[in-house]
Amino acid sequence: MRLTYKGFELKSAVEHLRDSGEWSTRVLITKHHANEVKEKFCSASNTFKDKAVAENYSIEFGKQVVDGHYQNATITDLL
């Protein structure tokens, strides 16, 4: 799943957790500049039994990161 939000590309990057069988919350945030592309992964502790739910939540989490809702997950290094 991929979405452009406020000039950033958000791509779900969930991972299957073998020990629990659940899916992680993880998103790749990309910022395209004139001469370079910067990207970083951000993750949260939330896990989900359903992959599609985890992907949707990861995109929403990415939006919240872009909007500055988390002190420990920021996009300042992408600007």
Describe what is shown at a glance.
The chain has one helix at 51-66, and strands at residues 2-5, 8-12, 23-32, 37-48. The chain has a single domain (2-78), classed as Double Stranded RNA Binding Domain, CATH 3.30.160.350.
Rg: 13 Å
Number of domains: 1
Instruction: Please describe the biggest sheet, giving its number of strands, its sense, and whether it closes into a barrel.
Output: 4 strands, antiparallel
Instruction: Count the DSSP helices.
Output: 1
SSE order and pairing:
Blueprint: E1 2-5, E2 8-12, E3 23-32, E4 37-48, H1 51-66
Antiparallel strand pairs: 1-2, 2-3, 3-4
Characteristic key phrases:
79 residues, alpha+beta, Double Stranded RNA Binding Domain, four-stranded antiparallel sheet, 1 helix, 20% helix, elongated
What does this entry look like structurally?
Helix content is 20%, strand content 39%. Strand 1 and strand 2 (8-12) form a beta hairpin. With 79 residues, it is of the alpha+beta class. The longest helix is centred in the last third of the chain and has 16 residues, at 51-66. Strands 1-2-3-4 form a four-stranded antiparallel beta sheet. It has one domain: 2-Layer Sandwich (Double Stranded RNA Binding Domain), CATH 3.30.160. 22% of the residues are buried. It has one helix and four strands, in the order E-E-E-E-H.
